Amino acid sequence: MNFSAKQILGVAVFLLVIFVGVPMFIAATGRWDFYFTLTSVALLAIASAGVWLTFYIGRINIGQGAFALVGAYVSAILVVKAGWSFWISLPAAGLFAALVAVLLGLPILRLRGVYFAMITLVLTQVATLTALALPITNGAKGITNIPLPSGVSLFGLTLIPDFGQLENTRMAFYFTACILMIITYAALYRLVNSRLGHLCRSMQQNEELASSIGVNITYIRILIFAISSFFGGIGGAMFGSISQSVYPATFVVKDSVDFMLNCFLGGLGYVFGPMLGTLLIYFGWDLLFEFGKYQLLIYSTILIVVIRFLPDGLLSIRFGKGEKK
Amino acid sequence: MSALLQIKNVTKKYGGLTANNDISFDVAENEILSVIGPNGAGKSTLFKMISSFVPTTSGEVLYRGERISNLKPHTVARKGVVRTFQETTIFKSMTVRESVVVAQHLRAKASLAGYFWGSKTARQDVESFGRYADELLEFLGMDSIADELASNLPQGNLRALGIAIGLATDPKVLLLDEPFAGMNHDETMRMVDLVRSVRDERGVTVMLVEHDMPAVMKISDRIVVLNFGEKIAEGSPSEIQNNEKVIEAYLGSADDEIGM
Amino acid sequence: MEQILANGVYLGSQYAMIALGLTLIFALMNVLNFAHGQMYVIGGFVTYTFYGQWGVPFVLALFMSCMTLAVIGALIEKYLFAPVIKGSSREESTMLLAAGIAFLLDALILLVFGEKQRGVPKIVDGVFNWDFRLIMPYDRILICVLAILSIVAFIALMQYTKTGRALRALAQDRTAAQLMGVNVDRYSMIGFALGAMLAGLVGGLLVTITGINLGMGGPTSIKAFMMVMIGGAGVISGAIWGGFILGFLEAFGLAYLSQYGDITYLLIFVSLMIFLAIRPQGLMGKPWG
């Protein structure tokens, strides 16, 4: 893998902004609430990365809210009821979401286009209703008072401090979320540029031809859907931990639609599209708060204008048509 | 002459409609065999059954004595029997070279995880894919358009791209779906030479479905003729040309279907 | 039992109309209209404004609902969907556009009609009571009859008029319809307007019973998607089946399952997924893929 000097510089600047620039800015301006906002952006960007990946095999996924909810509940239940450390519950939540994705994917991944989109949308609703109905999720009351992540130490060396003891929990969560996001996107970038990514592209463009050259499309579809849902589960679990509570309405249909819009707004042809999309949609929405009751009107108008005039997403302005990042 | 591919009593029914009725013939190693017949004779259906794109109603297809019908298309491809499509079925937003590289994935030695981490085997694979793609494109005379997007190619090149994708999988048997359709005389002759050299230089057994009679006569070692889902004749091009049943079938069908 | 069946017919007739509009738009343009629920809500508010606030006769108010939605639908098709369908290579774009339009309509509803729950006076008083075996307010019966009449009228329109034939040709094969001389652009617009109008009509009918509020859009869309999936997308008979099946399931669920909490819809969803695993094209849809 050879990176150009420009790419390396870009990544370095990005890391510097996230880990040095933002904390300095916040310390200087005293806008501590930005930590929470940016943490949310990072976590939602992780879930959006999963949706982007399903787009990459030509499936419109409006069900990521369901997997984020599953992840949030699994982690919360493991921490609260089974007394696990949050750091073990986090991958467990991701894996559980992936397992659910495999079981559901077997039947529903046969559907294409609009049909898959509709069924995944319904899936989000199913997740919410299931959370309401099951005893273990505690119905509409949800799971509250989730303890903050505990510390992890190895041979007396503190690897991760106990979040409850920290002075600045918000900053700790911010750093954690950013690290997770960077790992997610690095993995996504590798995946897309490795053989699996090429096979996905071949499936996205023509499933018949792909299977004629020996691609096991069923297997790859399920694998991708599982990875996608793993990201959703991780994002959701971390989100639950930060807000210290999970309700059936923590992730609803609107969130699933937002995940999809994040991917689209950034550009479906670009790995880092969903990250940018999430940032813009989240911040854009917050900034428009100033306009009071016109918030939704302006937001939706901008959205429609972008779709109308930039059908390949915002990154297409810089990179031009067809070029892949 | 040993049979590489055996089609044994293959029948396909769609509801009450019989697309293929009890068809049997063999394809020998290293031969070029064409299946011809008027429109609606069941050629495409037969093709799809051989490549397991549709299941047979009864009967089976054997490759080196092993059943390949009623499986999944990708399993059949992995065994070495690969089909091509007509021109619209391509990877639209990949370049010619990218398409040929991705089609080589069956030759990969490293696992998907190996590629993810960038293992040594994976790097070697990537290198060898690239080399082979260049070699193959040169062989097919497509090196000058290697970096064109598939969607920008003219029709004639699309057919060649389809064959390139098929060949990249390193098949033993290549099934070509109407490789000459919509081509003028010169293009057809070039394609005939190309298909010949695929067989002669790469040792690939070729089976094709085609309308274009002159081309079929020129290219084929043997020909199988279908009409209304039944096999009505089988033999060398000269035998077929003089077969009364075949002439009747072609004259009896709609005028615009006569290719002779 | 009679009561449950009657409730099923009542719910089913409303649902079938909603599903018909959605499936019509889908069949014509291959667009999943996320904003369908919002169109329903607008229809409700328009009837509320004319009939509930200004005292215009109910039938006239209903007519205004239909007209408003027809105009909105036509404008959306002409200025948003048509250009995006032409300009984009990705199938996803229209779906995202539909999501954007759903937000936009929500925003407009909020600005024009506010976020309060609104209701209108009953159109007819009294309750039909058959020996306490079947109790049904007269207004519900009237609405149900009107809905069924509308469905019949819609089918007649599709079967026997020139417009209907053109729309059906368009739904079957766009290119062929164009070759046959159907003005594709014009009929796409008419079809979209007609689909939106159906949503508005149901909204106008139901405001007299359930009232209307901003939050009803999203859930209505989801129900409509389910009906379309049950029946098979893009098929008229499928939409009607889907509507009535969902209506009956809901009626039975409310009668027998409500004591276990809110699990009716969970069960419906789960059975829908199992059903689609076995029959992805729905009841009436044609196999595809």
Task: Give the SSE map.
The complex is a heterotrimer of chains A (325), B (260) and C (289).
Chain A: H1 5-29, H2 33-56, H3 64-80, H4 86-108, H5 113-133, E1 152-154, E2 157-160, H6 169-193, H7 195-205, H8 207-212, H9 217-243, H10 253-266, H11 273-287, H12 295-309, H13 315-319
Antiparallel strand pairs in A: 1-2
Helix pairs in contact in A: 2-6, 2-9, 2-10, 2-11, 3-4, 3-5, 3-9, 4-9, 6-7, 7-9, 10-11
Chain B: E1 3-14, E2 17-28, E3 32-36, H1 43-50, E4 58-63, E5 66-67, H2 73-79, E6 81-83, H3 96-102, H4 112-117, H5 120-139, H6 155-168, E7 173-177, H7 185-202, E8 205-209, H8 213-219, E9 222-227, E10 230-235, H9 237-241, H10 244-252
Parallel strand pairs in B: 3-8, 3-9, 6-7, 7-8
Antiparallel strand pairs in B: 1-2, 1-4, 4-5, 9-10
Chain C: H1 2-29, H2 36-53, H3 58-87, H4 92-113, E1 127-130, E2 134-137, H5 138-160, H6 162-172, H7 174-179, H8 184-206, H9 217-231, H10 236-256, H11 264-278
Antiparallel strand pairs in C: 1-2
Account of the protein in words:
The complex is a heterotrimer of chains A (about 325), B (about 260) and C (about 290). By secondary structure, chain A is mainly α. Chain A has a single domain (about 30-320), classed as ABC transporter involved in vitamin B12 uptake, BtuC (Orthogonal Bundle). In chain A, about 70% of the residues lie in helices and about 0% in strands. Chain A is built from 13 helices and two strands; from the N terminus they run αααααββαααααααα. Chain A has a two-stranded antiparallel sheet with strand order 1-2. The longest helix of chain A has 27 residues, at about 215-245. The two termini of chain A are about 15 Å apart. Residues about 320-325 of chain A have low confidence and may be disordered. Chain B has about 260 residues and is an alpha/beta fold. Helices cover about 40% and strands about 25% of the residues of chain B. Chain B has ten helices and ten strands. A six-stranded mixed beta sheet of chain B has the order 6-7-8-3-9-10, with helices on both faces. Chain B has a four-stranded antiparallel beta sheet with strand order 2-1-4-5, with helices on one face. In chain B, helix 3 (about 95-100) crosses helix 5 (about 120-140) and helix 3 packs parallel to helix 6 (about 155-170). Chain B starts with a strand and ends in an 8-residue tail after the last helix. Residues about 255-260 of chain B have low confidence and may be disordered. Chain C is globular, with a radius of gyration of 19 Å. Chain C has eleven helices and two strands. Chain C is mostly helical and about 290 residues long. Chain C has a single domain (about 1-280), classed as ABC transporter involved in vitamin B12 uptake, BtuC (Orthogonal Bundle). In chain C, helix 1 crosses helix 6 (about 160-170), helix 5 (about 140-160) crosses helix 6 (about 160-170) and helix 6 packs across helix 8. Chain C has a two-stranded antiparallel sheet with strand order 1-2. In chain C, about 75% of the residues lie in helices and about 5% in strands. The interface of A and B includes residues 202 and 209 of A.
